[in-house]
Design a protein that fits this description.
This protein has 22 helices and 10 strands. The chain is an alpha/beta fold and 475 residues long. A 6-stranded parallel β-sheet has the order 1-10-7-4-2-3, with helices on both faces. A 4-stranded mixed β-sheet has the order 8-5-6-9. A hairpin with a 4-residue loop joins strand 5 and strand 6. It is elongated. 41% of the residues are buried. The model has no long low-confidence stretch (mean pLDDT 92). Bound molecules: iron/sulfur cluster.
Length: 475
């Protein structure tokens, strides 16, 4: 399955017809959204916590270059190695080089969206290194040979019945009766995965946070797979986007409270694992520790008017609460990062021309910003992206805006236009018997593809005002 952000309209139309998807999304998004509200409301002052989290992230972004250097100094000081990768290809090449250096052939991997960006697992497979996804959702996605549809819940798009059928078909699980038992399916996958940790010589993780003052990489997981993937193999590679750094433990303490509450409605994730480097002479853990700091478009975002988008802590709350995501799911967005924040990040990371429909995939209702634990101003950024896209790319829109501006600054012309439109609408109604237009010709057909064009009033507001109030309605 190939992801294509520019095909949002076609993909969304198909997704809207998918009853199984609708069932899965209804179950998944609404329960996660409800859990978030309950968990955030439990805190003494949810809004103060949100603003504290926002402050922590914005402070970190303001000092980003220095904080990254601090991370590097601290980790190398303890025997770890820090690599910098400009793009996805460089990440993949660096991981492969480490595999070659240490003769690594099989690895276990916990969830990481950055490695989805770089398509690391298929790349390594093509070069003779097998990676097994150990997060249950990611494992299902790998068995299904598809992509995650949510940044926290990779199989938000699947019902338990569909996972059952997949396990029976691809993994030889004994079929269950009706209803299927998710717990038994989880145990089945767990038994299968447990044996593999012992065979692995490589563990790959992402990172939810990096704490600059001590050079600590943090992963938050719920299944224990992250801990097994990092403590048993002899080499651990953490692959982390540069925006995940925070200056201090105090800032981390704020964000580690909000992430699970906003994400899954938990007070804490079950496992919060911290890494500072290799095991060394006396400790447990990997012999070699690598941190790959990934740019992949982020420094462009950093230098743009959209820096705030990098404050995202990938909790998924904006996806769960978004009325568009709730209807079409993640795959329709055709990108690693779906939902409201994906509609902002994807055009910025991939190039606006490669994801032009996404900023328009929003009702601008503001639910995303209200749900966001770091109060990212997503609707403002969506609006600005729309403006940028239209201004840069659409000659019809540019011409239309110029014409509109000209008409607005020439009141007589404007009124004449309104009168003509009213007459045309009247003629149309008399000829067709319809008051609304259900199909406009190109290039205006974008409007009527999904809604009717409302009729022009037979009398303009200016005429009405003159008739009923006297004087000029003002231009
Ligand atoms: S934008 Fe906010 S709500 Fe959405 S994933 Fe990022 S942190 Fe969570």
């Amino acid at each position: 399955m190939e992801l294509k952000a520019n095909q949002f309209l076609q993909s969304a139309t198909i997704a809207l017809e998918d009853i199984q998807l609708k069932t899965a999304l209804d179950r998944g998004t609404r329960s996660a959204d409800k859990a978030r509200i309950t968990a955030m409301d439990e805190t003494t002052d949810p809004e103060a916590l949100r603003q504290q989290g926002r402050g922590a992230k914005l402070r970190a972004l303001a000092d980003l270059p220095d904080l990254l250097e601090q991370i590097e100094t601290n980790i190398t000081g303890r025997g770890g190695q820090v690599l910098w990768a400009l793009d996805g290809d460089e990440v993949n090449r660096q991981v492969l080089a480490i595999c070659r250096e240490h003769d690594l052939r099989f690895g276990v991997k916990s969830k990481s969206m950055v490695t989805e960006e770089t398509a690391l697992v298929p790349y390594l497979k093509a070069h003779g290194v097998e990676m097994l996804e150990t997060d249950l959702g990611e494992f299902v996605v790998q068995v299904d040979e598809s992509h995650p549809s949510h940044i926290v819940t990779p199989i938000m798009h699947m019902t338990k019945e569909k996972v059952h059928d997949l396990f029976v078909e691809k993994l030889g699980m004994e079929p269950m009766g009706d209803p299927v038992d998710p717990k038994a399916m989880t145990h089945f996958a767990q038994r299968l995965l447990r044996r593999k940790y012992l065979d692995a010589d490589l563990g790959i993780t992402g990172g939810n946070f990096m704490i600059a003052e001590t050079g600590t990489v943090v992963i938050c997981t719920n299944e224990g797979n992250g801990r097994l993937s990092t403590s048993l193999p002899r080499v651990h590679i953490a692959i982390v986007g540069i925006e995940k750094v925070v200056p201090t433990w105090e800032d981390f303490a704020t964000l580690v409270q909000t992430l699970p509450r906003a994400s899954t409605g938990q007070r804490m994730t079950v496992y919060t694992s911290l890494f500072n480097g290799p095991a060394g002479d006396e400790g447990d853990g990997p012999e070699h520790f690598y941190l790959i700091l990934v740019d992949n478009g982020r420094s462009n975002v950093y230098a743009s008017d959209y820096t705030e988008a990098l404050a995202c802590i990938r909790c998924g709350a904006c996806l769960n609460t978004c009325p568009v995501y709730q209807q079409v799911g993640g795959h329709a967005y055709g990108t690693v990062y779906p939902g409201p924040i994906g509609a902002v990040l994807t055009p910025l990371l991939m190039g606006k021309e490669n994801a032009a429909p996404l900023p328009f995939a929003s009702s601008l209702c503001g639910a995303c910003q209200a749900a966001c634990p770091v109060d990212i101003h997503i609707p403002d950024m969506l609006l600005k992206l729309r403006h940028d896209l239209q201004a840069e790319q659409d000659p019809v829109w540019q011409m239309g805006m110029k014409g509109f501006g000209f008409a607005f600054s020439h009141p007589l012309l404007f009124e004449a236009g309104l009168k003509l439109s009213g007459l045309a609408a009247q003629a149309y109604t008399e000829a067709t018997g319809q008051t609304t237009v259900d199909r406009l010709p190109p290039p205006l057909d974008g409007w009527t593809n999904s809604r009717d064009f409302p009729p022009f009033a037979s009398e303009s507001f200016h005429d009405w005002w003159r008739k009923n109030r006297g004087g000029d309605a003002g231009h």
